[in-house]
Specification:
about 425 residues, alpha/beta, Rossmann fold, 2 domains, globular
Length: about 425
């Protein structure tokens, strides 16, 4: 059954299909993944019933949550539910522990992602007449590949994701007559700044739509960006852990993001208690995969703040919607769509230096430059040499180490460190 068929089903039929896919996901995970099997046995011992035999979708709240820490602890293939011979693609994304997040895909998984990407792009009005340009940070390279394949599924002309300077991105945007740009809100702002510093009027561009990913945005930001660049904006929600940038997408009415419900089951919970919240209440978004064969996630806590919108969308799509909210329910930093764990910064520094230095870390967003993570390390006698050359070499080594492991731009400075903040 493809996505179009799902949208055509009656409400009861859609829910039944979701329930069947949930049961299939639970059975596959409990049968093939030791991590899930252990949790199944613990639940069965405590409750006296098989947790894979739920009576309805609502019973999913009886199952335990998955955390980001679980992904790192079972690196690299410990959460795969199929043999490696069935894996046709392996994605790696910066994790929130020392280990990166590794996810695998079967042929069926990739076909499902292409379908989801095409649905999300189609809702933004893309057709074969468009030229799609993808501009993302290196930490979201996998998303660039997904958008490329989704665009190609719709026969859109695609300029694949390539790491370029803002000046080069602007040159491509102008000369290649890009009509749709996929980027993060931060990069969109950065690109707009370069446009005006280059004394280039937005009317010289063929840009009609910007699809914003990686970070939630408020209405005023969108109004300002649309006014400045003479374009429309859409928002897509995704996670690097799956990975996938179109788990939820906007339609042309821009009244919340439609969840790809034939592939994901979404819940909103109270961050502290884990209690399910009713539609309309803001809390933490929890996702369960329904069709992922290689890498099933069961009640995965995203750390994203959102609320479920109860009323049906006037566009006619029967998919439930969420409002993606700013700030998070956890301590992770969001830098251009890449999530960074502050505790991991400290852990990397401790491993590199042999002791735990005092430090503070801040996301810097200079108006005329790309954003970056600034790590201020307290000056300590045991850490630095009196020789300037040795000091510079050590700072450079720390900066390169953090950039490589965190997947974001990093600047390291000396200061009072932990005495502030």
């Amino acid at each position: 059954m493809d996505g179009h068929d799902f949208l055509d089903l009656a409400a009861a039929e859609r829910e039944q299909l979701q329930f069947e896919r949930l049961q299939s996901t639970l059975n596959r995970a409990y049968r093939n993944v030791p991590f899930h099997q252990k949790r199944q046995n613990e639940l069965a011992a405590a409750s006296g019933r098989d947790p894979s035999l739920l009576d309805s979708l609502a019973d999913i709240d009886s199952l335990p949550f998955m955390e980001r820490q679980d992904l790192g602890e079972h690196y690299p293939y410990g959460l795969f539910a199929v043999p490696l011979k069935d894996i046709v693609r392996i994605h790696t994304a910066p994790g929130t522990t020392f280990n990166p997040t590794v996810s695998g895909y079967t042929c069926n998984d990739l076909a499902a992602w292409r379908s989801m990407m095409a649905r999300g792009l189609g809702a933004a009005g893309l057709t074969s007449q468009d030229i799609l340009q993808i501009s993302l940070d290196t930490g979201l390279n996998n998303w660039g590949r997904d958008y490329k394949e989704g665009g190609e599924t719709l026969a859109v002309g695609v300029i694949p994701h390539t790491s370029l300077s803002a000046e080069k991105q602007l040159m491509v945007l102008r000369d290649y007559k890009t009509s749709v740009l996929v980027t993060t809100p931060t990069q969109a702002t950065h690109l707009a700044g370069h446009l005006f510093r280059a004394d280039l009027n937005p009317t010289a561009l063929n840009l009609k739509r910007i699809i914003l990913v990686g970070e939630p945005v408020d209405r005023q930001f969108r109004v300002d960006l649309e006014t400045q660049l003479h374009t429309e904006t859409w928002v897509h929600f995704g996670l690097s852990e799956l990975p996938g940038p179109a788990i939820a997408f906007e339609c042309g009415l821009h009244q919340g993001l439609h969840i790809q419900e034939d592939h994901f089951l979404a819940e909103i919970i109270a961050p502290d208690s884990g209690r399910p919240l009713p539609p309309g209440e803001a809390g933490e978004l929890v996702l369960t995969t329904l069709t992922a064969r290689a890498f099933p996630l069961i009640r995965f806590r995203t750390g994203e703040r959102a609320r479920l919108l109860e009323a049906p969308c006037p566009c006619g799509r029967p998919l439930k919607r969420i409002e993606w909210l700013e700030k998070r329910t956890d301590a992770l930093l969001n830098l251009n769509g890449v999530r960074v764990n502050p505790q991991l910064i400290q852990a990397h520094l401790s491993r590199q230096l042999g002791f735990s230095p005092r430090c503070i870390h801040t996301v810097r967003r200079p108006p005329l430059e790309a954003p970056f993570l600034e790590v201020e390390i307290a000056v300590e006698e045991r850490l630095f040499s009196d020789e300037i050359k040795v000091l510079e070499q050590r700072i450079r080594a720390i900066r390169l180490m953090l950039r490589e492991n965190l997947g974001v731009p990093v600047n390291v400075v000396l200061g009072e460190g932990g005495k502030r903040g």
